[in-house]
Amino acid sequence: MMNDARYFLVFGLVAIALLSLALACGTETVEVPVEKVVTQEVVKEVMVPGETVVVEKEVVKTVEVPGETVVVEKEVVKTVEVPGDTVVVEKEVMVEVERDNLPPLIVGNLNAFTGSIAEFGPPLRNSVQLAASHVNRAGGVGGGSMLVISRDTAVNPVQGVDAARALVDVEGAVAIVGALSSGVTIASAQSVTIPKGVLLISGASTAPAITTLEDDDLLFRTTPSDAAQGAVLARLADELGYQTVGIMYINNAYGEGLAAQFEESFAEYGGQVTAKVPHEDTQPTFASELEKATEGNPDALAVMSYTGQSRVYVREALEGGYADTFLFVDGVKGSEWIDEIDAWDELDGTLGTAPGSEGNPALSIFETAYEETYGFPVTHPFMAEHYDATVLIALAAAKAGSTTDSAAIRDALRFVANAPGEVVGPGRDGISRALRLIAEGKDVNYEGAGGIVDFDENGDVFGTIEIWQVKDGEIQSTGRFELP
Q1: Residue (of 157, 147, 163) closest to 182 by Cα position
Q2: Is 214 exposed, middle or buried (0-12, 13-18, 19+ CB in 10 A)?
Q3: Alpha helix (H) ranges present in 116-212?
Q4: Neighbour count for residue 279 (Cβ, 10 Å)
Q5: Residue in 36, 318, 331 with CA at minimum distance from that of residue 182
Q6: Full-prediction pTM beyond 0.85?
Q7: Residue of 400, 414, 411 lying closest to 460 (CA atoms)
Q8: Distance CA 422, CA 443 (A)
Q9: Beta strands in 226-295 (DSSP E)
Q10: What are the pLDDT digits (tens) for 191-202?
């Protein structure tokens, strides 16, 4: 054996060599799709004295995995004699991955750029595009890019069905994010996505009717049902001391379901809904409906509509003396319509409800990325939920090993959204980590910007309802996030 000085000299030389090799290898950070990944492993062995021998040995192994990935392992063993009695053996293993990228992951987006909720369209489209950008910057799905194509539904079920059919038949979408309106989502699902076996995830449709729809497990949503919002709104009305409430609601699945849930829950507090009055999407005036909804002078008028109608009949209610106290919901949580009718002072202090989660690191990551990308902050409901729906499609596609098989992506969805699994979150770094874990065969549990997205057997999620307010010329959160 060597004396101490020689031992430390050799040990130091080996340590320097190993450190240099480690620095050369580095830590891989994948920002764009890659064709080759190389990893190196160094093993130090101490052997008995022997003559100087240099041995190079190459072992080649080919493995086919989903996406036609070919893995080639090359092992080189080098034996070097160091002066003295000890021989140091360095073993270097190089793994080269030659990847044939999967085809693009094409995702449709049913959105509303015209119609009664058009101001929601651009920010929700931006949220979907931001998610796709993060997926692509994280390396894509199987090396393939994620492509989002948006089409306008005009908040109209007929146009929505046409848009969904074009996304699937013309654009080749393997999954769809949308729509905003529950009525459009239900019509598109029943007429297009369910018959064609295409996954659809809505980030905004809240109608309770979606829960029980016969959908072959192809319809999901990343926002809670109005079974929750209606209950929280009823509790809020009771807290405010309202004993009677009249309701104006949009005549579709969203308005009808929310009004029914509110009435049922309000009755449990001893409250009375004096009238439930439906209205159509587009009307020049709502005076007749307002007269019916406010008959008997209820304590408040619940506005269960979209911004396109509220901008007309809230102004008519104020100017005509029908009502001056309101309860708002998610469909009117926007500042544009209040600006348009110049009613900030008259509506100051009005409270409303909308699905939303309390501030958390995941939400902050999304909000920061959105503002950095688009130059203005998150402003509307359902933006985080649209982002999450898009990310989940990408992670499910990675788990399924396919960007073209909608059924396989659907089957993988709960495996990347629900516990158990390592918790992963939004943002490019979070998605990159999730994709890496999936590639290693590990389970992940995505917890999104909009909150926990554990899908139940109906494709629903369970989440909190935010109480918001019109205050000092803007829409503000009260900081209250409640469960039904």
Answers
A1: 157
A2: exposed
A3: 121-137, 157-169, 182-188, 194-196
A4: 21
A5: 331
A6: no
A7: 414
A8: 6
A9: 244-250, 272-279
A10: 999 999 999 999
